[in-house]
Amino acid sequence: MAEFCLVMTTCPNQQEADQITAALLKQQLAACIQQQAVSSHYVWQGKLEQSSEILLLIKTTGHCYPALEAEIRKLHSYDTPEIIQLPIEAGFADYLQWVKDSCR
Questions:
Q1: Could you read off the pLDDT of 30-83 as tens digits, one per residue?
Q2: What is the H or E stretch that residue 100 is in?
Q3: What is the residue extent of each domain of the chain?
Q4: Where residue 1 falls among pLDDT bands split at 50, 70, 90?
Q5: Could you tell me which residues are beta bridge partners of residue 11?
Q6: Distance (Å, rounded) from C-alpha 27 to C-alpha 38?
Q7: Which residues have a Cβ under 8 Å from the Cβ of 45 and sit 6 or more positions away?
Q8: In terms of Cα–Cα distance, which of 40, 36, 38 is closest to 49?
Q9: Would you identify the family this protein belongs to, as annotated (predicted)?
Q10: Which of 5, 22, 3 is nearest to 83 (CA)?
Q11: Displacement of CA 92 from its chain's centroid (Å)
């Protein structure tokens, strides 16, 4: 498990994105979360779909990932939300220390 990671998830609207963002930060499961409007294209249940979503880029630690995933699953309205963990193999040491200090 990587010490630091970036977690990506998408939300159907700004309200849900803000709710998940606030919960993760209040519980110290993430140090920083960026939100960005995206247009998602995918196949769901055999049909080509397109939707406007809010992408969350969540900076956290590998240690916090299980609880972070559980919290997203609890708050997310999708049956099968995108929750992807990408390891951070290197980064500015001061920033990574801040991430570590910010997460429980």
A1: 999 999 999 999 999 999 999 999 999 999 999 999 999 999 999 999 999 999
A2: helix 93-102
A3: 4-102
A4: confident
A5: 54
A6: 26
A7: none
A8: 40
A9: Belongs to the CutA family.
A10: 5
A11: 21
CB contact at 8 A, 20 and 9: yes
Residue 50: CA atoms inside 13 Å, Cβ hemisphere, count? 1
Cβ neighbourhood burial of 11 (10 Å; 0-12, 13-18, 19+): buried
Q: Which amino acid is at 55?
A: L
Closest by CA position to 7, among listed 33, 26, 27, 28: 33
> What six digits make up the tokens of 102?
């910010």
- CATH class of the domain defined by 4-102: alpha beta
Measured distance CA(39)–CA(24) in Å, rounded: 24
